[in-house]
Amino acid sequence: MPSKKIEKIDENVLAQRLATFNPEPLVKLANTAKDKDEIEISAIIEDENTIDLAKTNFLNVLNNEDIKKVCEGTIRKYGVGTCGPRAFYGTTDVHLELEERIAQFLGMQESIVYSYGFCAISSSIAAYCKKSDVVFTDTNCNGAIEQGLLMAKCKVVHFDHQNPESFKRAVENIVQNEKESKRRARKFLVVEGVSWKTGKILPLEEFLKVAEDNKIRVFLEESYSFGVLGDKGQGLMEHFNIDPWRLDMIIATLETAIGSIGGFCAGSHMTIEHQRLSGSGYIFSASLPTFLVQAGIDSLNLIDSTKPHHNLRKLSLNFHDMLTDLGYQVQSDPLCPFKVFNRKNCQNKKIHEYCKARGLHFIWRDDDDCFVINLNVDLLNNERKYKKIEEVLREAIDSVSN
Hints:
Elements: H1 4-20, E1 51-52, H2 65-78, H3 93-106, E2 110-114, H4 117-128, E3 134-138, H5 143-152, E4 155-159, H6 164-181, E5 187-192, H7 204-213, E6 217-221, H8 236-239, E7 249-253, E8 263-267, H9 269-278, H10 280-283, H11 290-306, H12 308-326, E9 329-330, E10 338-342, H13 348-357, E11 360-361, E12 363-365, E13 370-374, H14 383-401
Helix pairs in contact: 2-11, 3-11, 4-5, 13-14
């Protein structure tokens, strides 16, 4: 057994070595450090002179005091985090309740809840699609779908989100190639109900017909239609009056209309059970904190009881008309809860800067030269805010024109 004297000497040597240890970085980065004053504050605090339309809060759930109180009580009972993945001390009765609630809400057999919306989409795709499979997806699909397809290493075939004929041609080309090579592959359609890029609503019935004629499994990503479209807020299948059994899986985040964190997949018992063993984001990630799970349950109860999405629909239509009347070119669907628009032949960056200086905050996509405004149903009953938005957007055009 070493003496205390030897231990003390070893500790001194160790301290000296640590003091002189200066390893090379794994990746050399350019010195882009900024002073504190140069860093723009990203948080937007709303007041009488500031309106935040960059935040995603379609049904104003984030400002619901009743849900906040319920979440506070949940924290006092369960704590903040579960400290483990779902299969390893990370599942509470509240998690199971939310999964049952989502399945019942959508008319599906079962659902599974992930701790992060991005992982819910990417992991569910990678759990089913393999290297030998063919996946059809929109040319401008979101990053989570792209990541899932990258993880799956499958053959990806693109089509136009709004064009069923584009999808049909892509399928016919693959089928013809299979006949020539005499090799058949499993086929999947992974598509967004509302495109994050354009805000356009997918003509689902036409796509389903092509998929069913060619025995293609359908995964519908409903992050921007779940809780928004349809009389009950069930999403695109209700909007087009389509039976749930025609969809193999519905995937969505809880970070848009629901106002929580995380995501879910809903489908048959077999479809969901497979993910409990193969969904990497489910198996390896710490589970969703219980108070956020409870927020999801209460948000769904709110949609059922007060139907705020009906007022959101009115707001979406009114806002679309307002933008058009002001002279903006609106790309998104009139029912879309976020508006993608710009002003043709105009310096859109200056319009964005003018609005920001006047306290109206929204997103400007530099690459696409367009704006994105995320609506909040509270605007429908707040005439002062609504008029200020209209006034600032009108003045912004005038300021650039002069």
